[in-house]
Structure formats: structure tokens, C-alpha cells
Amino acid sequence: MQTIMKRLKRDKRAVSNAIVVMLSLVLVVIIVANVVLWSYQMNQLDWEKMQEDVKITDVARAGEAWSYNASGYAPSGSTNLVSGSVSNLTSNDGVYMVFRSYASATNTNNIVTNGNVTTATDWTYTDISDPSAVVSGNYSSTVYQSASYSLYIQLVDDSANLAYTGSGKQYQAMATVSTLPTSATLYFYYRIDCGGTSASAEVANATVTITKPDTSTVTVFTTSVTFAALTTGSWIYQTINVSSVFTATGTYTLDLRGYFSTTTAKKPTLTVYYDDVWLNIVTPSEYTNEVEFTGSSNTESWMQLVWTVDSAWTISSVNVTLQLFNYTLGDYPTSENGYIAYTSGDTPNTDETKNQTITVNPTDFGDATGYWRMKIKGVKATDTQFDFKVDWIEFKVVTDSGTLFTFENAGSLTSHVVSLWIINSTNHRRYDANLFINSGEEATYIRADIRLPSTPFIAKVVTERGNMAVFARS
Can you give the residue range of the structural domain that contains 463? Predict the structure, then answer.
């Protein structure tokens, strides 16, 4: 019995040992399996992390564009509107608002002068009277106003002739006008004497006419003096605006005339003198076309301004300046932002589009109400008037609506961006993110809640796998 009991106890211990061994083996297997699985998972994560390649290619302010056109205009100087209205400036469609230039610089040309004349070749002397009248003419070196000589036309005392009317002579000077003048002025002195032996209702007439290229004649001055006694006349100075006579280019003839009539057979000596005769025409040497355009816009915070002008000129090589009023400066700028200068092309009537993008202090170019002003000026040294044809004016502002991130996934796996940072010298701020970027994809990501600080700054993102990408803007 005792032997049996001993055997049972020994067998029980053997079973227990077997169970312990088996349980130990199970635990070992579980532990080894978990270690292997964990190791596999860690290797897989590391592998995936190594395969991920996300880059930040750009970080910039995101904006919303607003376009505006001119709503008013004001010509400067003597610039005139020819046709069109500001409603034609809303699109680049070849429908123009047209302005005509004005003479901004001139030359004065003395096309006729007798000044210090000394020879008969300076003027043409012509008889236009009754052949029986004793009328002569020449240059006088004894009766003159300021120059050394004067022109005279004289009815000679001749008792042999009967009374007559309408007798006289004329001096003529011809001049060619090749450029239509902006103004013309005739200057001269005249004097009428009654000499000889008697005077009784003797009449002397001084008349100045201009014959135009179409052969029509315009009387620009005439006077009549009746003498009852012998009289020495006084020099009288005349300044006459004859601008209206010069309506075309071509040859003009200036006539200085003396006409006489008497009522007695015994005639006195009647004399008409002309001295210091000047016919000056003012011709343009430069034309200018200048217009200011105005408009309105919004009053939001602008991050960018683009202003555009599309126009043409009816003459080549015009020196053009485009200026945008700077309200901080209080004036139109003459360089850099708000200023464009160029010379128009060699082919007239050719549209040219000019624009400028302003990213530094763009709000300087609008006032507190969003009002803006733009001046366009074209100048050319020429004697030919020209037109400015403006087709399109645009004032486009871009308002700050957040931050635009641009990413590139060059890896073989889809990446999940979970957080980002914006860092500068005074701020270090983190933002949650949730952006998936497929393999080989370029993606943009707009955050309206992020306002970029002034440069320099650093942008940083972290993916779900723990990779990091950094972008620096200096």
C-alpha cells in the first residue's frame, strides 16, 4: 500500500512538471510571436517612413482679385475729347476713347519782314492804278520810323492831269507756309502825308490784304484820311491778329497798298509810308496729350495691385508716361511703383498693353474710400497734331484671404499632413491640419485662419508618420 502511494505521488509530480513545461512553452511561443510581430510592425513603419517624401514648394498669401475700371476723366492743358466715353474702357475690345493733343511748345517764324530793307528785291512793286495817274513808289531813306528805310507809295503833284479816283500802287511779299500755324500776327507802322502846293478833299487810303493759297483775298487793315490842308502825318503802329487767315498750308501774299483820289486838277503830293513790316507765324514744335482718369475700389487690405493700360497713338514714337497717384506721397510718382515710361512703337494706331504689379504697400495708391487716380501723358517734338486712343484701363486689387501652401509628394505612399507651424523671430505657432497627398501629386492647401507674418519666416509641416518638411522665406 505504501508503495502504491509513493508511486502515485511520484506520478503526480511528473504530471505537474509536464504541465508547467507545456505552459512555459506556450508562454514562450506567445512572447516570441509578439516580439516577432512587433519587430515586423516596427520594420514596416520604418520602411514606410523612409518611403515618404513630402516637400513644401511654396507658402504665400492667398488672395481674392477685384477688378475696377475708370469711371471719370479730366483732360489737362488744351487736350480735347474727340469721341467715346469711359464706358469704352472696360474691356480690351478695340473700341476707343479718343483725345486730341495740343501744341505745348512753339517756334516763331518771321515769314515776311522789311526791317532794314535796302534793295527793291525784298518786295515786289506793282502798279494797280489808272495809267494816267502819276503814282510812284520806292524805298525812302529820309522818312522812316526805326529802320533805315521805309516803303512808300506816292501820288505826285501834276497840274496837267484831271481829277481821278482809285489810283494807287502796291508792294507784295510772298511766303510759303508748310505747317499750319497756331497763331499769326502782323506788325507794321504806317504814315500818310499831304504835301505839294494845295489840298482840297484829297483822300489817301492805306490798305493791307493777304491773298491765300486758294487765291481768295482777305483785307486785314484799311484806313482813309481826307486832307483839307497840307499835313505831315504821324507814324501809327498796328498789331493785327491774322490767325484766322491761315487755314491751310501753301503760298500767301502780303499786299501793302496805297490808293488816292482827288477832286481838283491841280493835285497835292499824297504819300503812304510803311515801315517795320513783320508777319510772324507761330508754329508748333511739340504736341502733348494728357488725361487723368479716376475710379473707385474696395477698402479692404490689399496684398497686391495690378494696374493696366491698353492704348494706341496715331503717330509713331510718342514719349508716354503712365502714373498712379500715391496718396501717402501726396503726388504722382516719377519712378518705381506707380510709374511707367516708354516710347510708343514705330507703327501708328497699334495697341500696346502696359501694366505693373505692386506688392509693396499697394494701399498707398488708394485713399481711405478706395478712390484712385491715374494720369496718362504723351509728348512728341513734332509739328503734327496727334490723337491718343485709349481702349482699356483696369485697376485690379488682390485682398488677403489667408495662406496658400503648395506641396509635392515625391514618395511612393500617400502622405497625411497632421500639423503645421509658422515661425518667425517673434512668434512660434502650431496649427492642426488634415491633408492627404497622393503619391506623385502636387497639392495646394488654403488656410483662411493663417495670416503670414512679414518676411523672413519658416513654415514647417509634420506627417502622420512623423516626417517633417520645412520651407523658408527670406
Answer: 52-62+401-473
